[in-house]
Protein: C-type lectin domain-containing protein
Amino acid sequence: FRNFFLCLTLSLEGVNDGLLDSSQVGSLTHDCGFECSMPKPCNVYGFTDWYKVGSVCVKYFNRPLNFTDAEFNCRTKVPGAHLVSVHKKEHNDYLLCIVKKFNPNNLRIWLEAFELFKVKKKTAGVYKQGDTEECVEMNWKEIGKWNDDACYVKKNYICAFKRNAILKPGSEEME
Structure:
């Protein structure tokens, strides 16, 4: 019953909230039978294996690292890249779809979340202030939710860079 509830909740809260039209997304079917909307590939030359999520391009890395090493590894991939930071629910949903596509058996990833408590409770998970869990993971006990965890724990991660930081004046985006 719990899995049915999670599937129903995710399908009702999916990306189909009117902010994007069907030409902007692909589809990925999840284990529980609903369609999860994948973002389009990043249309910056040389980064077509990344995905466009809002104003950033993101890529999933299936190489567990602690929080600090994951952040520094992101910085080596693209100038200005960092661990992905989530500010909108539809972006959270896209990231969930990306994680499900590349590693459906291990949904936990690191998130950059220094302004954690400004996030709406809709996306929030469980936070235990005052303990040693100072970093944030996505997909803890409930799919798509966040949790604080010890920074030394190794997890997969998603890097992000701002598209406009890579595009130079006069350069063309790929069609």
About this structure: The first strand starts at residue 25 and ends at 29. The CA atoms of residues 89 and 122 lie 8 Å apart.
